[in-house]
């Protein structure tokens, strides 16, 4: 929703300022310029991005338009899921979660937390780590190094869409100049026309530069930053999971491990100690 509001504010303020100076809006309507700039930008995007990167960009754009980010409920799910798993391990032993880890869809624990359950990468992150804990005697230091390496790899992939879109944004002013130059070329072919006609064609040519700069700094550039912010939120989310898992392997009690995780949740999404305690009390029953 904020994305849509921002987009409207950008174009609204630009056009309002133009109208205040009694600008001629018909001159701004140049479909050919938009085809040149937009088409060239799209082509450049396809050239630099393999099919898998294009899919990542489209998936992130879908998140951006939907406004789906991690909130307090998502983080509370992490804390409660890990609490339930750890309590089960303490009561019944590590082997008791083998069935849950190997077949999460048939587990009695994972489906109770639908948002996390449908986050496939987060599920792999949790189940693979638990599988490692069950099958090895890995220390908490080595586990932390392993999870850091996995998170770095995931973060590098998650930030690829923002880098690709940023490259497109950087190219837009140049493509706007290309469109403007082509407009000037067309204008030179009409050099024998009256000044009023030449002025119209020159103005139309300059619209190309205007569109390139506007799209770069008003839309595509901010979109790349928004995609980067999504990747950063994703990294924070997995950071909470890592802290909890490492704390438990270190030998901390489930409540302590979960508290370690709660403390690293960003402040605006962090559940209070009382909220976690109340939710955890329901699990223990």
In short:
The protein is mostly helical and 285 residues long. It has helices at residues 2-20, 25-28, 31-48, 51-66, 72-92, 98-102, 114-117, 120-135, 140-158, 160-188, 195-249, 254-263, 273-284.
Would you give an account of this structure?
- The chain is mainly α and 285 residues long.
- It has one domain (29-285).
- Helices cover 80% and strands 0% of the residues.
- It is built from 13 helices and no strands.
- It has helices at 2-20, 25-28, 31-48, 51-66, 72-92, 98-102, 114-117, 120-135, 140-158, 160-188, 195-249, 254-263, 273-284.
- Helix 10 packs antiparallel against helix 11.
Q: Determine the fraction of residues in helical runs and give it as a percent range.
A: over 70%
Counting structural domains, the number is 1
Cα-atom radius of gyration:
27 Å
Q: What is the beta-strand fraction? A: under 5%
Count up the helices: 13
Q: Class by helix and strand content? A: mainly alpha
Shape label: elongated
Q: What's the β-strand tally? A: 0
The stretches of 5 or more residues where confidence is low (pLDDT under 50) are none
The first-to-last residue Cα distance is 40 Å
Order of helices and strands: HHHHHHHHHHHHH
Largest sheet: none
Mean of all residue-level pLDDT scores: 89
Notable traits:
mainly alpha
Topology:
Elements: H1 2-20, H2 25-28, H3 31-48, H4 51-66, H5 72-92, H6 98-102, H7 114-117, H8 120-135, H9 140-158, H10 160-188, H11 195-249, H12 254-263, H13 273-284
Helix pairs in contact: 3-10, 4-10, 5-11, 5-12, 5-13, 8-11, 9-11, 10-11, 11-12
């Amino acid at each position: 929703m904020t994305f849509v509001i921002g987009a409207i504010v950008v174009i609204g303020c630009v056009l309002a300022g133009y109208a205040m100076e009694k600008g001629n809006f018909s001159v701004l309507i140049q479909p050919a310029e938009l085809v040149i700039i937009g088409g060239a930008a799209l082509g450049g995007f396809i050239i630099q991005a393999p099919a898998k990167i294009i899919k990542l960009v489209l998936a992130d754009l879908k998140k951006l338009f939907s406004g789906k980010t991690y909130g307090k409920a998502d983080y509370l799910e992490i804390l409660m899921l890990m609490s339930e798993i750890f309590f089960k391990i303490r009561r019944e032993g590590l082997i008791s979660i083998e069935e849950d880890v190997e077949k999460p869809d048939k587990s009695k624990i994972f489906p109770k937390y639908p948002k996390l359950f449908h986050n496939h990468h987060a599920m792999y992150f949790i189940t693979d780590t638990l599988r490692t804990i069950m099958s090895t005697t890995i220390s908490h230091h080595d586990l932390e190094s392993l999870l850091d390496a996995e998170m770095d790899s995931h973060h590098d992939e998650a930030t690829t869409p923002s880098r690709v879109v940023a490259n497109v944004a950087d190219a837009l002013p140049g493509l706007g100049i290309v469109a403007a130059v082509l407009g000037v070329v067309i204008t030179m072919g009409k050099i024998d026309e009256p000044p009023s006609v030449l002025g119209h064609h020159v103005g139309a040519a300059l619209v190309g530069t205007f569109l390139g700069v506007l799209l770069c700094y008003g839309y595509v550039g901010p979109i790349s930053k928004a995609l980067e912010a999504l990747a950063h939120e994703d990294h924070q989310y997995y950071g909470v999971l890592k802290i909890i898992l490492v704390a438990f392997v270190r030998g901390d009690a489930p409540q302590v491990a979960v508290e370690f995780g709660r403390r690293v949740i960003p402040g605006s999404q962090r559940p209070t100690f009382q909220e976690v305690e109340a939710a955890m009390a329901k699990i223990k029953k």
